[in-house]
Amino acid sequence: MQDIYNWIDEHRDELVAELQELLRQPSISAQKVGLAECAELLQRQMIDDGFADTQILPVPEAPSIVYTTVEAADPDAKTLLCYGHYDVQPPEPLDKWIVPPFSAEIVDGVIYARGATDNKSGVLAFVRAAQAFREVRGAPPVNLTFLFEGEEEVGSPHLEQWVLNHQDLCACDASVGLDGGVHRTSYKPEIHLGIKAILAVELRVQSHGIDFWSGRAQLMKAKSAPWRLVHCLSTLFDESGRILVDGWYDDLIPPDEDDLRHLAEELEHFDREELRRQFGLTHDFPYDDTLELLKAIHYGASCNIAGLNAGYTGTGMKTIVPAEASAKLDFRCPPNLEPADQLVKLRAHLEKHGFDDVEILTHTARANPYKTPVREAISQSIIAAADTVFGEPPLVMGVSTQGTIMIHVPHPAVMSGFGAPENNLHAPNENMPVDRYIQGIKFAATIFQEFAERTK
After folding, report:
1. Domain range annotation of the chain
2. What does each C-alpha distance from 253 to 116, 119, 443 come to in angstroms?
3. 107 phi and psi angles, rounded to 5 deg
4. Is 2-195+370-454 a domain of CATH 3.40.630.10?
5. Which of 42-56, 57-71, 399-413 has the lowest average pLDDT?
6. Could you report the per-residue pLDDT of 414-446, keeping only the tens digit for each?
7. Based on C-alpha coordinates, what's the Rg of the chain?
């Protein structure tokens, strides 16, 4: 691989400048900002990098997919689908950033920008790794399919139907995503062998017609919208972290023997105090047993309140009884907990506990949670590539996040990443060290080579 690595090193400045250009284009799926412009920019960059057949494929009612294929020199080579997304999270709160979130400024060797880790660096790492093979050896060692979508950060609600309609475009022998950073306490690379699904809902309750003077709050007792919502939310989740909806865990697949072995390996390198420091927690994690903490991280279901809204939240006081209240929640669903089934259970829970006045206003779901065996060729290829590029074996995790492609086009799918431990994805000051980005391109190239060798 040294000839490939040399090409990457020789083009370092060009590679970094291209990433900065992509990062400076806002592409916020939650706010529908800049998505078409970003897809066009990414297409132009890929064409400039030598992939003239790069297309922008429309997705009904959703951002387009940027797509191309690259042929290997060997006609018998397998096909690896490289999945990524060009959309990003909203950058707020803006006042917490040390530089503007779409400036892509380099500070002390680190690029700060929304999307720096999640996931524009991973997208371009695939492209540039393929270019390195083309420039140095004439072609990559495997057939490549690049599929980059624009709504992963809102749960990819339209991807499943698109895949069903375009299964031929998604045909592959395995898929890989490079999205995220290395382990937060051991600094080792991570290999994720599956996904958790997401059920996202907004709960809303209206208790009366208009806001009125809080001097008459006693008329409502606990029937005002905010109190109804608070009491409703308190029935969903207990202090131990268990979801209280009847039947929520009925179909959950517990960690198997391989999973437990990998958890034990991670335990040897895990530093709970360092993780607590990185998150800025004022208390310890609610797990006395660190192994149980790791099980919860990788295999546990969760119920998260992502946002609350009621009444007046501006400067000073406004003495009112709010008429409406709402909350945005997301549930992470490990393998076998299908969001559509869990939504039915949630509706039944609200009715059972007398909260039929609480409306499930909207819901989206990234469905089909899955697991990929560690013995698969793509799993072993990424493990070997991480060992080669990072100089140490990775930590193999249970499940994380990726797309839903493999459900309808069956194949093993794995996710990894190369960002910094404190990459701040989804938070202010998301970042990518320049050295790690260059390392990430080498990581992608080595995955291609390892997969080719294991599938001959």
Report:
1. 2-195+370-454, 197-252+300-366
2. 34, 29, 31
3. -120, 115
4. yes
5. 399-413
6. 889 999 989 999 999 999 999 999 999 999 999
7. 23
